[in-house]
């Protein structure tokens, strides 16, 4: 079989845009079909680790991203109860030196904008908005192609229609997202540091968004049931009480930060269990459509970017398409499983209580920053396999 010459991608988020650009750079023509009438990204900040920035640099996007993001000096773990530092992983110049690519933080919309600009400049890419796609047949009738890529997110209609795929499930955790301008931020938030504050059954991450002069705050806590309104809603009085209870006993400064949050968004965290990512013929899922995961390893966007790079590489080599898609799925499933395991470990460690939390703090206090960085070599040092 000759190499793939055309692709239809459903979904123009980070996964779909990266896939479109990666495929076009391999000489494959791409049509992107997006349900929204205009591309408007919800959410706030995003951590982009070296395994993802390496791929984005290969696409020629690093200068555009560096103009918008910041590269924190450290990733710090601190006590949510006392603010005391527990451990630190060097980032900034150390990340470039150790992993060969930067660790950046920026607004999610900024990454999408950089990708979108590059796609629009690419003559082999066409973006069509306002197209609701329910099935593979819908997509290929709208845009016939050699291969169909589902990049339509955690609620992917293409996944629902794929034999052997499994529905998304609630993870048992809720994330609160809001912004705090630098000028109104407490002194314990450092614009040169990503800080994760740890506590019983909850943690809070704060990191700088240089392009808007604000900290992105993500507060995650366990909650037995997902909010009734589903995926996304504005915080109301009842929700505020839920948040306050989850962080009871935390440092007064952090409690005040949460209490004064302006118009927070609540995201019940859903994940996709293992299931089919390809129909074995010409359709394949990537990103959250295939393997949505909780943010405990901060790797959701990075996994989507890795998916896009490897899929483009494999499709450009030719061979039997069904076998190519199955090989892609097998390779990525192994990688994603390892990242999920790291996320599960982080969830256990971050949300530890009582003696487990004391043991965690003791172990962390004995680890040198370089030793902690070495634990991430397999993750941040990843390069797309041949």
Automatic annotation (TrEMBL):
Q: What is its EC number?
A: 1.14.13.1
Cofactor(s) needed for function:
FAD
Tell me where on the tree of life, at the top rank, the source sits: Bacteria
What the entry lists under InterPro entries is as follows: FAD-bd, FAD-dep_Monooxygenase_BioMet, FAD/NAD-bd_sf
What is this enzyme's class at the first EC digit?
Answer: oxidoreductase
Q: Which keywords does this Swiss-Prot/TrEMBL entry list? A: FAD, Flavoprotein, Monooxygenase, Oxidoreductase
MF (Gene Ontology):
FAD binding; salicylate 1-monooxygenase activity
Gene3D superfamilies documented for this protein: FAD/NAD(P)-binding domain
Sorted alphabetically, which SUPFAM superfamilies does this protein's record hold?
Answer: FAD-linked reductases, C-terminal domain, FAD/NAD(P)-binding domain
In what residue span(s) does the FAD-binding domain sit? 8-339
Entry-linked PANTHER family: GERANYLGERANYL DIPHOSPHATE REDUCTASE (PTHR13789:SF318), MONOOXYGENASE (PTHR13789)
Name by which UniProt lists this protein: Salicylate hydroxylase
- Per the UniProt record, the source organism is Shinella fusca
Biological classification of the source:
Bacteria, Pseudomonadati, Pseudomonadota, Alphaproteobacteria, Hyphomicrobiales
């Amino acid at each position: 079989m000759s190499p793939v010459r055309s692709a239809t991608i459903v979904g123009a988020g980070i996964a779909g845009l990266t896939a479109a650009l990666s495929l076009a750079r391999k000489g494959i023509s791409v049509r992107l079909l997006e349900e929204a009438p205009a591309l408007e990204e919800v959410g706030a900040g995003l951590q982009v680790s070296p395994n993802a920035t390496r791929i984005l640099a290969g696409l020629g996007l690093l200068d555009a991203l560096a103009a918008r993001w910041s590269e924190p000096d450290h990733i710090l773990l601190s006590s949510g109860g006392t603010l005391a530092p527990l451990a630190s992983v060097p980032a900034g110049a150390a990340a470039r030196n150790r992993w060969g690519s930067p660790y950046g933080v920026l607004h999610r919309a900024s990454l999408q904008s950089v990708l979108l600009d590059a796609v629009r400049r690419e003559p082999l890419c066409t973006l069509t908005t306002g197209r609701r796609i329910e099935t593979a047949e819908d997509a290929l009738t709208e845009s016939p192609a050699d291969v169909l890529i589902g990049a339509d997110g955690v609620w992917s209609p293409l996944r629902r229609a794929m034999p052997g795929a499994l529905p998304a499930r609630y993870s048992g955790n809720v994330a609160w997202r809001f912004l705090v301008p630098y000028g109104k931020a407490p002194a314990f938030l450092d614009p040169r540091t990503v800080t994760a504050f740890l506590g019983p059954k909850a943690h809070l991450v704060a990191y700088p968004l240089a392009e808007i002069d604000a900290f992105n705050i993500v507060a995650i806590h366990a909650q037995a049931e997902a909010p009734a309104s589903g995926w996304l809603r504005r915080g109301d009085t009842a929700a505020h009480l839920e948040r306050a209870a989850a962080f009871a006993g935390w440092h007064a400064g952090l409690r005040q930060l949460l209490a004064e949050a302006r118009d927070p968004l609540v995201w019940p965290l859903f994940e996709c269990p293992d299931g089919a990512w390809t129909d074995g013929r010409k359709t394949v899922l990537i990103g959250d459509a295939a393997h949505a995961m909780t943010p405990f390893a901060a790797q959701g966007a990075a996994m989507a970017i890795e998916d896009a790079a490897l899929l483009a590489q494999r499709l450009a080599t030719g061979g039997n398409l069904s076998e190519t898609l199955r090989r892609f799925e097998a390779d990525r499933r192994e990688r994603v499983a390892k990242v999920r395991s790291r996320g599960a470990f982080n969830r256990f460690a971050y949300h530890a209580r009582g003696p487990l939390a004391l043991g965690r703090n003791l172990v962390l206090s004995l680890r040198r920053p370089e030793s902690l960085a070495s634990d991430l070599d397999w993750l941040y040092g990843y390069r797309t396999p041949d």
